[in-house]
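seq:
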Amino acid sequence: MSSTSEADSPAAHRHFLLHKPYGYLSQFRSEAPREARKKRFLGELYDFPAGIMAIGRLDEASEGLLLLTTDGKMSEYVRSRHVEKEYYAQVDGQLTDEAVQQLQQGVEIGRQGEKYQTLPCQAFRLETPPDFPARGRSIRSDRHGPTSWVSITVTEGKYRQVRRMTAAVGFPTLRLVRVRIGATQLLGLGPGQVQEVPDFRLVP
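struct:
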């Protein structure tokens, strides 16, 4: 008899793709009574199995691709620097070539008084805005000036990193959507939709 239990077998684990909507926390439930909380959680979107975990997080205001698994080893690998994460960011103003070059080379960001230099990354301006569904909460009125979109691909996962990067080059992020993790893409999933998959495609 094998010493590996069925629960520990890779085949026993379950994996999901989720398009996290705006306004949800990247956790599944709260211990507080429903009437005592106003936050929204992933567990409201689908009947996930016991032991499910989000691989990495998107903050409450961010949207897009979230990988969910019951496999802790898979979670650890995806969060490592071996796997790319691509984001589309709508920024305040018309992004300049100089700002894109700064993002590509790495910028200094700060949190709680500490400074961090981001690693060189892939970044380019999106000449055509992506065709995302309207967000639940309006971005802002057009009378406040133009906006533009940029693709940023990182392998790091510092807290609110992409938002801090665009702010560091003078273009604060207004909307942030993660569109790819490894070779797994957001395409085809609408906000709040969940798809169970046999495994994640992490290598192109």
